[in-house]
Task: structure prediction
Amino acid sequence: MTTQLTSPQIRARKGATPLVMVTAYDEPGGRLASAAGVDIILVGDSVGNVVMGHENTLRVTVDDIAHHTAAVCAAQPSAHVVADMPWMSYHVSREETVRNAAQLIRAGAQSVKLEGGSLRVPHIEALVAAEIPVMGHLGLTPQSVLAFGGFKVQGKTKSAVDILLSDAAALEAAGVYALVLEGVPAEVGRRVTEAVSVPVIGIGAGAATDGQVLVWHDLLGLGSRTPPKFVRQYVDLNHVITDALTRYAADVRSRTFPSNDETYPTPPELA
Result:
């Protein structure tokens, strides 16, 4: 059985070799991410944007995340698997928060991630008390898109930075083993990273954080949306896949596929 990176091991990586995190949503994603040596796989509610075609993450449910978590974990990855808690799955009560997180752990996740600052402390404490490891998420929190009025860079004023620092300290005290920090100026990313003793994994937060995370479809050039400024695209799979499908269609229509090498031979008694 594959030995996976644990949440205590991730916490111990503070200030060491940067942590590599990527989203994945299915068995091939889990298998390929693990083969590439990724440290953490996030089964993200970004599945709503990049797989389901929604404009934001708010329509994603706990059942959706559990389904995709089970698919990723079927690959038995060596990477740590953390599952996103979707919108409204941790907002009502501590009891409901624990029940929803337990569903994701049963699906195969080793920890859960939730968004928000000090208001989430009681829910994080309830999860930690239930021995469910928790990753926090501050800055541009996509589930707050309606409150923010869009996907907007956060931490642009001194008061906003002070709130981020206070929230990071509160989440650390509540027991998170790591934090995602999204969509903030690089200097803010540095300050938050230096202010807490848990790893801070950045996405659009500069290079001074303890690691980086990107969405699978963004870094692989697979999708229709315009990627955010902070994305580095490593390959254009849209082009690669479209070219392969175009050649396949041409071969079918010209009857050059399948060839004799791709066809079962005729048994002698039928010849």
Remarks:
- The two ends are 49 Å apart (CA to CA).
- The chain has one domain: 7-235.
